[in-house]
Design a protein that fits this description.
One of its GO terms (biological process) is RNA 3'-end processing. Helix 8 packs across helix 9. It contains 19 helices and eight strands. The protein is mainly α and 658 residues long. Helix content is 46%, strand content 5%. It has a domain of 148 residues.
Length: 658
């Protein structure tokens, strides 16, 4: 029996190749930019540009792995060697136990101090790099407050004002927690995110307090990304942050790259590599080589591929490369670099908007990439990162300060010095939490006392204001009353001039005797005394003074001009109504009786007969009139003139005084 003939090796290879199914790359999600994208490209690890090596920039110090790290390096590939160094460096840069304890203590103190100012259910949590897997020893403490009822507080106009209203009452409590002169409230009008910055008095940590909900969402996204990519994300981000800090490119307000932008950039590149089929997930990658590959990929992308004038990175949607010239990116035209946040928003948030030193960042990425590649070419290389990297001085100072503060707290405030370290930490934390709670109670009590004092002061001010108004009202009432009295007097005077004149006493066809006749003067004085009734009608108490001044009240028969805003008083109105009554008819005048003239005497005017009606009228109550002025004497009659010419004197006129 013959054996079966095996197929040729070439034919077997072709059959296997035909039966193989190539994995399909996942479809790219849709970005809110929706512009025309660049052609997807494979980012090479080896530089595609000439290598121009130069001296080390900024005289950077060296960093050497420990002897244990050097003895564990057995691989000879570039990626494997670099992966081991990244792991060693990340372990050195990670926050030690002392820093974690101080961060937790500062957060507990802040919660105890500001918690009583908010209702139950308010979230006071840390966010940012201090609670992320990529936290470094120099990371500050970012704390967000989220009261119930504000799940999505927009920081635009009304939302920023509301956040300012929530933070302003906390300043007294924060001043008690902070070191003297370190509190810096950024609550001015127009700021996008109101924030309060201070340095904690006990832990010596920088704390940033704000009203947040976006920061809490970002923490969850960072934790999810770290769980997905593992060391490929955490080791690379820690090394990049230290590298940027070493060259002063990590401060956003100075035109550098902040930590969240660095994290978003690395996540975007990992998304791109994953979409291209390169195993970078923690569950499918080679942990001995992949972190080194990702680190070199990021350096190459920043140094040789990225053109920020034309290319934007969309970290929230698979790390797409976006055309910046598209109209959808016009809102970011003033930003030198466009890197969207890993937190999907509409419109996308540009976390790279503060970068203004991209040329320095690009030169640094090119130099580090080329130095690492060149160092691998030398035999018996001990470390690849020693040529370009060392632990920044800020990291060393932060670690030294944290260690001194930590040991001082345990030695000074721990109740039992012989207890284990964990027990000492709990004792110190309990003490300072109680201290912060007492601070909060004191601030709340003072705030209530101040509020009560302000209410009392406001009440006193209101009472004083009411008293002033009452005084002003009373003065105005008195002034109006005085004005009414004056107006009444003037009204009475005007009405007297209008209705009662001397003509009512002396008829037009009668003549006033010539000469200084005492009887006539006495009769006129008696009539004037009876006509003074102004004060007796309006003000009986002032009748005596007004009667003395009444004969001199007017200097003529002309009417006085009334004030423009005068209103007649009750007395004047009564007199006006009385004067409006029809006058009584006058009785017929009796015929003149000529007196017998003695011989030698000239004819004189006849004496006026006494009328009983006149006597009764004069005896009746006098009208409220103004005393008349004596009427100008008339010229003597022709007969009297003739008598005077003849030299005869007229007999005296007998006048009856009523």
């Amino acid at each position: 029996m013959s054996r079966p003939v095996s197929p040729a090796p070439a034919a077997a290879a072709e059959a296997v190749a035909a039966a193989r199914v190539e994995p399909v790359a996942p479809a790219a999600p849709t970005s809110p930019f929706a512009p025309a994208y660049f052609r997807d490209q494979t980012i090479p690890v080896v530089a595609d540009a000439p290598l121009h090596l130069g001296p080390l920039p900024y005289n950077a110090p060296k960093w050497l792995p420990t002897a244990r790290d050097r003895s564990s390096i057995k691989a000879f590939t570039l990626h494997a060697h670099l992966t081991l160094e990244l792991a060693s460096l990340a372990a050195f840069l990670a926050r030690p136990r002392e820093c974690v304890f101080l961060h937790d203590l500062a957060l507990d103190r802040l919660r105890a101090a500001v918690g009583p100012f908010f209702p139950e259910g308010t979230q006071i949590r840390a966010f940012g790099s201090s609670v992320s897997p990529v936290a470094s020893v120099s990371s500050d403490l970012d704390v967000g407050i989220l009261p119930p009822g504000f799940p999505h507080l927009k920081f635009d106009g009304k939302g920023a004002r509301k956040a300012t209203e929530l933070l302003r009452p906390l300043l007294p409590a924060i001043k008690a927690l902070a070191k003297h002169g370190t509190i810096e409230p950024v609550l001015r009008h127009g700021v996008k995110v109101p924030i309060v910055k201070y340095v904690d008095r006990v832990t010596n940590l920088e704390v940033d307090l704000s009203i947040q909900w976006e920061g809490f969402t970002a923490v969850d996204l960072v934790d999810a990304a770290a769980a997905t990519y593992g060391a490929n994300l955490t080791h690379v981000v820690l090394t990049l942050k230290a590298l940027l800090s070493l060259h002063s490119l990590n401060v956003a307000r100075h035109g550098g790259v902040n930590g969240f932008c660095t994290l978003s950039l690395v996540v975007a590149i990992l998304h791109r590599l994953d979409a291209q089929g390169i195993p970078v997930r923690a569950s499918s990658c080679d942990p001995t080589t992949t972190p080194g590959l990702v680190f070199l990929t990021v350096l190459h992308f920043l140094g040789f591929v990225l053109d920020p004038a034309r290319v934007a990175i969309d970290a929230a949607y698979g790390g797409m490369l976006v055309d910046r010239t598209h109209a959808a990116c016009n809102r970011y035209a003033d930003h030198a670099w466009l890197v969207s946040s890993i937190r999907a928003q509409d419109p996308p948030e540009n976390v790279g908007r503060c970068l203004h030193q991209y040329s320095n960042l690009r030169d640094l990425a090119q130099f580090v990439f080329l130095r690492i590649v060149q160092a691998m070419e030398f035999p018996r290389v001990e470390a690849l990162l020693t040529a370009v990297f060392d632990v920044p001085d800020v990291y060393r100072r932060a670690y030294g300060t944290a260690r001194r503060v930590y040991e001082g707290l345990l030695e000074r405030d721990a109740e039992d010095q012989s207890a284990p370290r964990k027990v000492k930490e709990e004792s110190v934390a309990h003490k300072y939490r109680a201290d912060a709670a007492e601070i909060a109670a004191t601030v709340v009590r003072k705030a209530k006392e101040k509020e009560e004092a302000e209410k009392l002061a406001a009440k006193e001010r209101a009472e004083a204001k009411r008293a002033r108004r009452a005084a002003v009202k009373e003065a105005a009432t008195r002034a109006r009353a005085d004005a009414n009295v004056k107006v009444d007097e003037e009204e009475v005077e005007d009405m007297v001039h209008e209705h009662v004149h001397v003509d009512d006493l002396v008829q037009d066809d009668e003549e006033v005797p010539v000469g200084d006749d005492e009887d006539v003067a006495e009769g006129l004085a008696a009539v004037m005394q009876q006509l003074v009734l102004v004060e007796s009608v309006e003000a009986p108490g002032a009748a005596a003074s007004s009667a003395a001044a009444a004969p001199q009240a007017s200097s003529g028969r002309g009417r006085r001009r009334k004030p423009a805003n005068s209103t007649p008083g009750p007395a004047a109105a009564a007199i006006k109504d009385a004067s409006a009554k029809p006058p009584k008819p006058r009785k017929a005048k009796p015929a003149r009786i000529a007196a017998p003239a003695e011989q030698g005497d000239a004819a004189a005017p006849a004496a006026r007969p006494v009328n009983d009606g006149d006597v009764s009228a004069s005896a009746a109550p006098a009208k409220k009139t103004r005393p008349p002025r004596p009427k100008s004497k008339k010229k003597p009659a022709k007969e009297q003139q003739a008598a005077e010419e003849s030299g005869s004197a007229a007999p005296p006129v007998q006048s009856v005084v009523v």
